[in-house]
Amino acid sequence: MISQPAPKPVITMRDDDFSLADDMAEDNTHDELSSIADLGAEHWQEEIEFLEQRLRGDQGEIDKDDRETCQVALEIARDNLQNCLKGKKD
Question: What is the dihedral of CA 75, 76, 78, 84, to 10 degrees?
Answer without folding.
Answer: 170
